[in-house]
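The following record pairs a protein chain with its ligand, NAP.
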Amino acid sequence: MAAGFSIDLKGKRALVTGGSRGIGRAIAIRLAEAGADVAINYLRNKKPAEDTAAEVRSKGVRALLVKGNVADPATHDDTFAAIRDAFGGLDILVSNAASGVIKPALELTPKHWAWTMDINAAALLPLAQRAVGAMGEKGGHVVAVSSLGAVRAIPNYAAVGASKAALESLVRHLAVELAPRGVRVNAVSAGVVDTDALKHFPNRDLMLSESARRTPAGRLVEPKDVADAVLWLVSPLASMVVGQTVVVDGGYSVVA
Ligand SMILES: NC(=O)c1ccc[n+]([C@@H]2O[C@H](COP(=O)([O-])OP(=O)(O)OC[C@H]3O[C@@H](n4cnc5c(N)ncnc54)[C@H](OP(=O)(O)O)[C@@H]3O)[C@@H](O)[C@H]2O)c1
């Protein structure tokens, strides 16, 4: 960033789903560095959530931990009630939490399919509906975190890839509907990032080495790279970016 220029989110309040580990943690910390208070949603692992909350607070802002499954509508009621009590409202929703079954398409059961779609795609709708209410008339920002599997076929990625395609479509539809209300909706799609999520891939080592080798920028995407794109999207620098999926992959996806 050019000297003398900074993105100031002081007084803004953000919710990052899956904000305790990996990419979500980097986003929570980046938003906190810019001055935002951050509510951190997580599902099971309290310790990393507490560590991330401590890191957020170390930036001089407020952190709130909200535990719950984003696929469960009851979670959203509890989450937004806690945010209202602690922060009084919301300005930024980052829908980042994801899960999913990594298997060939022919081995996916209806349960695998529903689990993946519910967490990765369906959750954005009730989250966005509640976020818009919590943002009120001043509007705000919604950013969803997607992956290249939305538009490319990746081994064992049928369920997650399809869920991310649905997510990106919902982002476009929400963007058009919410722009007149002052809510900007976009997505960030990342290339391979070495987080715990990759432990579920049988071919993890090959994915990492091949991604690094084939990336024109010469290295893997890091959580911080995705967080920087989110920060840009929620800043005035991106005020006419609406309904887009910003790809952060070091050029991987444009190589023939
Ligand atoms: N890693 C990659 O290569 C990559 C590439 C492109 C896009 N992405 C996307 O980036 C996002 C973050 O991925 P990541 O690699 O950082 O994942 P990760 O390291 O596995 O972290 C997942 C986070 O989501 C939370 N979570 C999982 N299921 C949840 C649920 N049902 N409800 C609420 N929270 C839930 C986890 O909380 P607990 O610890 O409590 O379970 C954790 O905070 C995802 O949308 C993913 O698809 C990842």
